[in-house]
Amino acid sequence: MIDHAHDLASVRDATERLLTALGKLDNASVTQPSRLPGWSRGHVLAHLARNADALVNVLEGRPMYVSGEARDADIERDAPRALDVQLADLRESAARFQEAGDAPADWSRTVGLRNGVTDSASRVPFRRWVEVELHHVDLGIGYELEDLPAEFTEREIDFLADRFAGHPDVPATRVTDGTRAWSTGRKPGGQGPEVTVTGPPADLLGWLAGRRDGSALTSAGAPLPALPPL
């Protein structure tokens, strides 16, 4: 069962880790490329702030974004800002998200996200946790997938394995760190053999999330599957 209050607390902790790390940077650092193609670190920070506000919209029953074009325009507008402005915006938008999350609500209700995706309101805090943790890694400022909380890594692997489950372009795949295992892709017994992908949790997460190429993983039964973009 999803514990939204626990996840809200985890978002708060992850945000504080991020803000502390960002406080050691300077304005020049923010303009440098992130690990995301075409995005500076400023783009990542602008996205994180606007995503917090977008998820407030979700929790309060409004469309997540006015449009995809408006989302992209807001990120481009905010990306060049100085570090102190970025930090203030990230802190204030995070506080607005926490306030919306702390408000009395029916957490079992279904909410709308982007591109017609729906989910339980109770999972929204975890989705924000994902944004903060993975984009902290994407900044390339010394926080790596291996530094992520173990609980987060296991849950995100589970979430991504479920996301690719039944995908026609992903063969039946068993993902394992040697202790735990997840199934994803097409159902076993269909077209092609089942693939077993094995490796450390951080590398499994990196591959599933499109942050690593999977070269540190081993694949048995067939070559490592090429995953479609998230």
From TrEMBL:
Residues 170-199 are annotated as: Disordered. It comes from the Bacteria. SUPFAM superfamilies: DinB/YfiT-like putative metalloenzymes (SSF109854), SCP-like (SSF55718). Keywords: Isomerase. InterPro entries: DinB/YfiT-like (IPR034660), Maleyloyr_isom (IPR017517), MDMPI_C-term_domain (IPR010872), MDMPI_metal-binding (IPR024344), SCP2_sterol-bd_dom_sf (IPR036527). Residues 11-139 form the Mycothiol-dependent maleylpyruvate isomerase metal-binding domain. The keyword Cell cycle does not apply. GO terms for molecular function: isomerase activity. Residues 147-228 form the MDMPI C-terminal domain. The keyword Isomerase applies. This is Maleylpyruvate isomerase family mycothiol-dependent enzyme. It comes from Streptomyces iakyrus.
